[in-house]
């Protein structure tokens, strides 16, 4: 019984660890978001409603899922992002992201990786130039990832070319994938 109780409590605490990438920008004025982000999600509620579009990512591939939308479909998510705008980046440049920390367990530090094929299958770790493990929830924090100097985005969506995915997560797997 004690083992089951400890397991249940540890799972409950990890389920409540939420954060979401609600804004991302690079060298241009266009701002994007992570896949699965919904504009009408209350950001300062600190409860279940605020967690609806937080992404949980397990493993090295894919872009995870949200409670509100289920699995993040990468091709559909990129197509939708292209309609609303994606962050413009350049090789060696910086991607600046606003991460909404829903509760204290959703804090960083964050690790980021880039998939130059934008398929979610080929992520390579990139350096963080600004990270955060602070922040009182609910609150936004800023993180920055430095893109490789030899970055060559080869992903496509519809007629668009030159797309990459940047995935950022913290230790519990919360974060998201940002098309750039």
From TrEMBL:
UniProt entry keywords in alphabetical sequence: Signal
Annotated transmembrane regions: none
Presence of the UniProt keyword Signal in the record: yes
Signal peptide (from-to): 1-17
Pfam families listed in its UniProt record: Egh16-like
PANTHER family in alphabetical order: SECRETED PROTEIN (PTHR34618:SF1), SURFACE PROTEIN MAS1, PUTATIVE-RELATED (PTHR34618)
Protein name: Gas1-like protein
Protein source organism: Ascobolus immersus RN42
């Amino acid at each position: 019984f004690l083992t089951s109780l400890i397991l249940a409590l540890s799972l409950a605490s990890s389920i409540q660890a939420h954060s979401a990438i609600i804004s991302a920008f690079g060298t241009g004025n266009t701002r994007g978001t992570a896949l699965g982000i919904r504009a009408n999600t209350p950001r300062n509620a600190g409860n279940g409603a605020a967690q609806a579009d937080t992404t949980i990512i397990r493993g090295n591939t894919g872009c995870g899922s949200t409670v509100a939308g289920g699995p993040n479909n990468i091709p559909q998510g990129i197509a939708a992002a292209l309609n609303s705008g994606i962050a413009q980046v350049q090789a060696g440049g910086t991607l600046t992201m606003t991460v909404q920390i829903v509760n204290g367990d959703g804090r960083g530090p964050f690790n980021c990786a880039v998939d130059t094929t934008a398929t979610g299958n080929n992520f390579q770790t990139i350096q963080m130039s600004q990270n955060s493990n602070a922040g009182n929830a609910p609150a936004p924090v800023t993180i920055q990832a430095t893109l490789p100097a030899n970055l060559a985005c080869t992903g496509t969506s519809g007629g668009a070319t030159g797309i990459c995915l940047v995935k950022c997560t913290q230790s519990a797997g919360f974060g998201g994938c940002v098309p750039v």
